[in-house]
Write a structure and sequence with these properties.
By secondary structure, the protein is an alpha/beta fold. Helices cover 39% and strands 24% of the residues.
């Protein structure tokens, strides 16, 4: 079977451009001239029959076809890198650069305070973190992603890290002014801080699970947010009632600056998953990170 080696070269240049952000920086990384990078990309576009980049003097952006091509070939490039590492006898070595796309609440409240342990354990590793709770293109430029919520159908490998309880809470000052809801239905008469579902763009429906089953409440409020840290800060300031992941709330609950309500209806749990490209065995750095995150999440 014949193989066009120029295709592999072009894909490598394509990946370098995506990593660097433009042709000039990619040329520096590859030891080529910018015009050489441009010609290699043009040959690749001619070979695959579609335009991969929209170009301007300062940056390049993926076309729709380019984004699909990127999603397909990056796991293959990572597989080649892994194969080369295994051939060199370094499959168990945790080093290099690990790119992680991670939920911002988990990053701030759980990972960041403990990240020193991970870096101390693997001194040859560099960690590149991007915070986002959106799933669209979450693996673009990432080796592993961490998101709350059930997994979508995709070619990615999804590893469940834990189930996180969901708590309904408010500041004591808010409850002193507006009263304490006795049932979930009482929330219809309260100011609720709503959180936007990153997948639908609409506020989440509030779910409560009690001894007699689950009920859903369409909570109402004047604040809709997509940053969990900002939403908790607004709740602490007495702006309304908020449903939050229990993980990360201990400090405020123990100090009394937040109070949980409707505790007999607090049976809801939300899963936390880690994702990586579909492969028989992910690189050692990915495995090490997943094991570390699962351990600290459980504690």
């Amino acid at each position: 079977m014949s193989f066009d080696t120029r295709l592999l070269t072009g894909v490598g240049v394509f990946g370098a451009v995506m990593e660097a952000g433009n042709f000039v920086r990619a040329a520096d990384v590859l030891g080529l001239t910018p015009s050489g990078v441009s010609r290699a990309v043009a040959r690749l576009e001619q070979r695959v029959g579609v335009r991969l980049f929209d170009r301007n003097p300062r940056e390049v952006t993926l076309t729709e076809e380019g984004a699909r091509f990127h999603a397909k070939i990056m796991p293959l490039l990572a597989g080649l890198e892994e194969a080369a590492s295994e051939a060199a006898g370094s499959a168990a070595f945790v080093g290099g650069r690990l790119r992680v796309s991670i939920d911002p609440w988990f990053a701030r409240m759980v990972l960041a305070p403990r990240i020193g342990e991970f870096l101390a354990r693997y001194p040859a590793l560099t960690l590149d973190l991007t915070s986002s709770n959106y799933r669209e293109e979450m693996m673009s430029g990432a080796d592993v992603a961490v998101r709350f919520g059930p997994p979508d159908e995709s070619s990615l490998i999804a590893r469940k890290l834990l189930d996180v309880p969901v708590l309904t809470c408010a500041a004591p000052g808010y409850l002193a002014r507006h009263g304490v809801p006795a049932t979930p239905h009482d929330l219809m008469h309260h100011d609720c801080i709503l959180f936007r579902d990153p997948q639908t763009g609409r506020p989440f429906t509030w779910e409560f699970q009690g001894d007699n089953g689950a009920i859903e409440i369409k909570a109402a409020g004047r604040l809709v947010m997509d940053d969990p840290s900002a939403a908790v800060a607004a709740c602490l300031a007495g702006q309304g009632i908020f449903q939050s992941f229990a993980i990360g709330l201990d400090e405020w609950l123990e100090s009394g600056t937040l109070t949980t309500i409707l505790t007999e209806w607090s049976g809801e749990q939300f899963p936390l998953y880690a994702y990586h490209p579909s492969r028989h065995m992910p690189p050692a750095k990915v495995r090490a990170f997943l094991d570390f995150v699962q351990r600290i999440a459980a504690t």
